[in-house]
User: What shape does this take?
Amino acid sequence: GDSVTQTEGLVTLTEGLPVMLNCTYQTIYSNPFLFWYVHYLNESPRLLLKSSTDNKRTEHQGFHATLHKSSSSFHLQKSSAQLSDSALYYCALSDRGQQGTGSKLSFGKGAKLTVSP
Amino acid sequence: NAGVIQTPRHKVTGKGQEATLWCEPISGHSAVFWYRQTIVQGLEFLTYFRNQAPIDDSGMPKERFSAQMPNQSHSTLKIQSTQPQDSAVYLCASSSWGQSNERLFFGHGTKLSVL
Assistant: This one.
């Protein structure tokens, strides 16, 4: 079945350094949808980025990711970490479901990013 | 729009007791999802409904977990004979149609602690 492997566990960075969280996936579908969700403390998880277009960079809130179907990857990057980026980050893959019945997201195990001064 | 509402925010049960978790999706959303969040496993899919019909419950531990959606405004997740390993944050999410490229809107979750 579909699966996502991402940077997981604790990731600690100093403010101003670049952020790189890796995400690779496995799916039988040739047109997958990939997502990054972010979960800030005391808030609900929310969508950060999504893409289904091969080799096209997508950006939001200073973060960016590019879906590369050739390597089955969708890595999350940011040029300069901020204290406010401290949160849980999940990579997710949408299955295509059965025709007419919708689909669900399969999430990776998550990475807890802590940015310190 | 109040977003996805989950109640209670925290629930403490003794081992062997039953726990019922409630979710009110965003009005007009036809797809409702349940996930379990733990440090070790991350966000694990449990089950989802579309237009109140159960579509996929492949993530549900079959023996003690059950989910229902009796009407379009709420869904429940029931855990019978709770065990310490059931301790987790249970997240409900909804989306407009449940299509592949749609954004999920999550609630704040119910933190279940089984003593």
